[in-house]
Amino acid sequence: MGSLRLFRRVRLAPGLTLNLTTRGASLSAGVRGAHVTVGRTGIRRTVGIPGTGVFYTSHTGLHSGIHTAGHFAEAKTAPPGGISSKNLPITLLLCLFLGPLGAHRFYVGRVVSGLLMLLLAMSVYGAILVVIWWLFDFLIILMGRFTDSHDDRICW
Are residues 136 and 88 located together in one domain of the fold? Predict the structure, then answer.
């Protein structure tokens, strides 16, 4: 049996769109190659290389897969939320001076997102996003909520 599908994108402003579907509405903000979508199921962040089909997406909130992947949770050796062996002052200094190049992310083992920051910093529109991303990371590090590649918190 078939089903009715609907998708309509309404441009509200440059870089801001309203997405309408049969399941609800969502709001997307960003430029070609990098955007954030906020909807009823949570927040989805997508970064990619335009025209290639290569992209990375992360999703938080309802339907993010965390609560539906019980057999993967059983296979974990240690619960997330431990203390990282990385040094917070070094992470903070790397973020402050080399943050737009993703140096702090490379240091804590987040190689993919560090590489994305580095690649985005090489374009005009990407550089604008990287500055916002960099300031966000700097604030998260100052608050002591920044984590390494194993989801362990980096503390003083």
Answer: yes
